[in-house]
Design brief:
- It is built from ten helices and no strands.
- The chain has one domain.
- 48% of the residues are buried.
- α1 runs parallel beside α5 and α5 packs antiparallel against α6.
- The radius of gyration is 18 Å and the shape is globular.
- With 233 residues, the protein is an all-alpha fold.
């Protein structure tokens, strides 16, 4: 299992970052003879991949970007199952939460600032979703609710960027409400998760600042999750 001192603090985030840095959008484009950085919005996320190569390739990119966040976090959670990482009422200790979150943060930062792309990358929506789904059960339920909210916002206004910003901004609020409702989930025990959810929401919103400007000026394009809106994940 992961030690809360030593390699657990270093190896997990490093591996998460290296896996999160894999530019699946670019690799899919290269396999089709296209550098997506020179097409469409120039982003390596699933929206631009779908716009440039076709919807099916955008969906494939989205799934792979989700998996590269989900996989490392699930693996880290598996190795945190030792009794010393859990309190008497079955809540993961603060130290355990920091180890788990550091792996997830590595994945998200890797996607946004890929070492393979000179620290450029996508906007982090798909990889963040994978990370959140993998932190079971604390973030999983919240992520599902936020995903439903994303679908609802997109269904009403057809702006992928607006849906992503809205879901990201609502995530820490939803999580805080769940903490207040679910048994042993208390703020003094889960504060690292709450702080992480706020930081993640801010990062996603900041990465969409160009979309926010276009939304405010009425120049943002409407479209499906893989075409028409420059909201590359």
């Amino acid at each position: 299992m992961i030690s809360l001192s030593g390699t657990g603090w270093l190896l997990g985030p490093l591996l998460g970052y290296l896996l999160g840095s894999i530019p699946f959008g670019l690799l899919i484009g290269m396999s089709r003879g296209v550098d997506v950085r020179n097409q469409g919005s120039g982003n390596i996320g699933s929206t631009n991949v779908g716009r440039v190569l076709g919807r099916q390739w955008g969906y494939l990119c989205f799934i792979l970007d989700v998996v590269k966040g989900l996989g490392p976090v699930l693996l880290a959670g598996r190795y945190l199952q030792g009794a010393e990482n859990w309190s008497g009422d079955g809540v993961l200790t603060v130290g355990g939460q920091f180890v788990w979150l550091s792996v997830g943060a590595g994945c998200i930062l890797g996607h946004m600032f890929s070492v393979y792309l000179r620290f450029s990358g996508g906007k982090g929506v798909a990889t963040s979703l994978g990370v959140l789904l993998g932190i079971w059960p604390y973030f999983t339920f919240t992520a599902v609710i936020a995903l439903l909210l994303w679908v609802g916002i997109w269904g009403m206004w057809r702006y992928v960027s607006l849906a992503s910003i809205g879901a990201a901004g609502a995530f820490p609020i939803i999580f805080a409400l769940l903490i207040g409702q679910l048994g042993p989930w208390k703020f003094d025990k889960l504060w690292p998760l709450l702080v992480f959810s706020c930081i993640m929401a801010v990062l996603v919103v900041v990465r969409h600042r160009s979309n926010i400007r276009r939304l405010l000026t009425g120049t943002e394009n409407r479209g499906g999750p893989t075409r028409g809106a420059e909201n590359d994940s």
